[in-house]
Design a protein that fits this description.
This protein has helices at residues 12-23, 27-35, 38-50, 67-74, 86-95, 133-143, 161-172, 174-183, 186-197, 201-211, and strands at residues 57-61, 78-83, 101-105, 118-124, 144-155, 215-222, 227-233. By secondary structure, the chain is of the alpha/beta class. The chain has a 7-stranded mixed β-sheet, with helices on both faces. The radius of gyration is 17 Å and the shape is globular. The relative contact order is 0.15. It binds S-adenosylmethionine (SAM).
Amino acid sequence: MSNTFYAPGEQRAAKVNDLFARIARRYDLINDLQSFGLHRRWKRRVADLAAVTPGARALDLCCGTGDLALALARRGARVTGLDFSAPMLAVARRRQGGRDIEFIQGDALQIPFPDASFDIVTMGYGLRNLASWEAGLAEMRRVAKPGGRLVILEFGKPANALWRSLYFAHLRCSVPLTGWLFCGNAQAYAYILESLKHYPAQLAVAAHLRALPLANVRVINFLGGAMAINYGEKAV
Ligand SMILES: C[S@@+](CC[C@H](N)C(=O)[O-])C[C@H]1O[C@@H](n2cnc3c(N)ncnc32)[C@H](O)[C@@H]1O
């Protein structure tokens, strides 16, 4: 296997699965270190936008260790968390406590639920990892009920050229260094920039959501666009 975790096309899923199996144990710690804890605030914003009503059905795709699934469950949703990585799901299940969450192993590109099943569909840092981000968005829309909300948190691309190059330098240098120091794996964290370069980011995702179509499409930027939430609603 080559030493990059990015692969186009059919090899994508196997490479991404291998990556998360290697870092699952340290994933949460490194998220806190690399974002200075800010990812928690951005995830709270996702949960705010999801506008959970009591008993709402929520699907958190690419749920990983369960941060978003837990946030939605705390607000009263009945949550399904889906991920294809058994080691990431094992961490999520350990964190679950007694909350109303079902964690299942599956592929976000072939969601094992019928059309119009969920009031809320979220995805945190998953879209950039899919073999086809467009197919991922179509699946999210398919399983949302009419009036359902799609909320996607992902790395972004700052519009300002100077800020973008500084940010990319950070992703190229200090992020892999932290990965090496705390997880013994620089390559897994170098993958963030590699995958971001192949991902069109928040503005193109918003244009695609409008075309699907979704209503009330919004982009919420953080840190000058270094992080972003894409939001849209399935028409009633
Ligand atoms: C960066 S982690 C994000 C975890 C969590 N959502 C968060 O915000 O911290 C990306 C997750 O996406 C999962 N993933 C990537 N491609 C997937 C796919 N096609 N189907 C299901 N899960 C996938 C990985 O296994 C990994 O757990």
